[in-house]
Amino acid sequence: MVALTANAQYSLLRYADQQKTQMNYKVAAEVYEKAYEKRPTYTSAQNAAFCHSKNNEYDLSIEWYKKAFAFSGEYTDEDITGFLDAALAIGQREEILDYLSENRITDKEHKPVNYKPVSKTGGEDPVKYLGDINSVAADFILDKDANGNRYFVSDRGEKLDDGARVKKLRFDAKNKMYGEEIYEWTGRDYLKIYRQDAEGNIHAVNTKGSGFMHVSDPSVVTVEGVDYMFFSVTRDLKDEVKSRDFEIQPELYYGAINKDGRLLFAQPFPRNSPLKYGLITPFADQETSRLYFASNMEGGYGGYDIYYVTYYKEGDRFIFSAPANLGERINSKSNERDPFAYKGKFYFASDGHSGYGGLDIFSARSLTGEVFGQAVNMGEKVNSVSDDFAYRQYGDEEIYISSNRKGEEGLDDIYQLLPARRKLLAKVMDCDGNVLENAPVVLHQIDGDSVEWKRKEEGTFLADLSAEQNYEIKIDLEGYFPVYDKSISSVGLDSGTIKRTYYLAKIPAADIAITEIIYYDLDRSLIRRTEHDILDDVVEVMKMYPRLSLDVSSHTDSRATDRYNQRLSKSRAKSVEDYMVGKGIPKERINVNWFGEGRLAVDCPDGKDCSEDQHQLNRRSELVLKVAVDDWLANHKEYKDYCSLTSSLDELLKKAEADKLDFEPEEDALGGEQLMTLERLKLFLQMNPKVVLRFLGASDQAVFEKWASMSVDYLTGRGISSKRLSKEWFENVEEVQGTKHQSRMASFDTGLQEIIIEIK
């Protein structure tokens, strides 16, 4: 009786191992359980746990791992990792860690598991169950020919109608490996290829060949006007092999099919070797004349890898090149299968790359004819915690996958991915962030049709985008600079929403000058490090707007001779020019002038006793960027962001700290930093005669009046009209900030032309 039990267990284990190798994990798990019932062993329990996990039956996997751990001297670190993988998948990681600790199974540090959690956001189901094709049996891999006929795989059998209930797996005590009509281990028919014609009629494809049992994985391709089908086959080889200890693995075949879907002949792929390795899931790519397939032949990275051969037709047969492995960006130590190529992208299924559970579908870009990019998981809109595989695409809106995610029996079904939601959401505002309700927004495909908008709310527009298209937006509102955006593209975008916010700048009422001043140490032309930020900001503006040119005027104080000061101011102008050229600004866009001591900012001529702060104001280079509105409008297409240009003054002032005047409470006179700030303001007001200046404050009112009056007096003394200067005191800082936000940013965009200085 012991011998009979051992022989029966050996037979079961041998078959279970075959099914595991061929990734038939559901069959393998139940066979391993049957073997364990006959005689409990670590091998049976561990393999049952592994196969249940691969089939996403995590509760059962945990149960069988615990049985494997009972054989304390045999479990491995991989068992611990698999145990934790299953626990994480059902949210029981902490409980399982406690179990390991309490049972002293191991005290090793466990490495992270290769698992992506599925979000719980819910929402619209991204897939549609194909009720006209799926049955209560297993149905998977939908292929399509040029005439619209659809081919798929099923083990439904000719006698299985929609009302029948699929038998669960059963086991036969006989040594018979295969039955004549049904697959002995499932009680269902062998896998066959079925064809659904344009009218919806479904018939089995005649693929009878020598010893054919399982026939699967159809791929139809048209070569020289003839349709050919590549497919995989598992054959009955018991009459060809005398030994009982052998493993049959799938092979590839191909043949021509007629207009009725009948296979005219079946020709073996020359690389078939069913007693050494398997060949499954062929895909014939008509565009590249490549045949992709998965195989566990020697020389791969582990499990099933994806390979390709090139082919060409010679008579009714094909000639194939030697197989080439797709490399480690595609293949892993586990299994890859179901290759498919479409418009420069490569798709496949894998249980080796980081995924959501079981087989997941991945994509990779074809970088060259021989090199693929990194594999990318297609996300939870495509993948689930179950097996997801056999990605097939026939146009932008017709995509199919196979999955065992649903169904009472947990069998495979075919699903259609719902059309990807590619959308454009655009919002139109002015430079202050106010919505522009009546802006005319026009969207069209570049060199193509216009696209209709849907208004979601004031100033917000929503449009549906077609796949693999480039678009242009035009916004032309009277009184504002027009916007042209050609950067919108759905090329390579599987789904998602492209968001754009457009800020429209008002056309200024007058020309604008952007001004700055940098200062030098005594008797030096070297630019101070503290002035680098100012020059860098000017460089940034000039790079953004290539039509702008820079005027540089350099000066000295009155000390030393006129001749010496001329040379020194020339060196200072040259220092600015060299700095700008070193940052990438062409020399021809920089106009340099030097005046020595001829244009003193502060009246400190030879012989007059002046403070060092006063002399410092004379040691300077004035920088002016002039923007002519007429020229600006004539060349508006060269500018991308008018709000940035019209607010460049604001940014430059902030970085130069010219937007505020800091005083100490006890100060009764203007100091060096305050004077330099006021000189920057004086130059700006001088170059922009329509700009007015407001001083704001929220400190002690008497102190504010004193400081503001000193500032106003200085500017009027430097030639600025008092009509352009005003001051205003507030009860609190918040009111100051609110006024700055409302007025300052609107200075050039609205034509109010005012700048606000905060006195602290």
Automatic annotation (TrEMBL):
PROSITE patterns recorded for this chain?
OMPA_2 (PS51123)
Superkingdom per UniProt: Bacteria
InterPro entries annotated for this entry? Bact_OuterMem_StrucFunc (IPR050330), OMP_bac (IPR006664), OmpA-like (IPR006665), OmpA-like_sf (IPR036737)
Main localization is: membrane
Q: Does the keyword Membrane apply?
A: yes
Q: Which residues form the OmpA-like domain?
A: 507-629
Q: Where in the cell is it found?
A: Cell outer membrane
The entry's keywords: Cell outer membrane, Membrane
Q: What is this protein called?
A: Cell envelope biogenesis protein OmpA
Which organism is the protein's source? Answer: Echinicola rosea
